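Before the break, one more example. Copy the sequence into your notebook; we will annotate it together after we see the structure.
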Amino acid sequence: MKTLRQVAGHTQRGQSMVEYMVVCAALAAALFVPIQDDPANPGSKRSTVKIVLDMFQELYQKTSYSTSLPN
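Here is what the structure looks like once it is written out:
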């Protein structure tokens, strides 16, 4: 017995890959959309990527300062 796909002559190959790529592209684009005011520069906004990079920079500065202190 033939399935409906075989009768119609259509196959569904690669559909999930296209959907996956669309979702990944949308999520990647959302990371660069400005969402929060920049406290260092009033009137401009920061993206999620910029916020995360600023936090890593601040953490590194605090960590390097604390490790440079004498015992």
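Strands lie at 34-37, 45-47. The chain has one domain: 4-68. Try to locate both features in your own notes.
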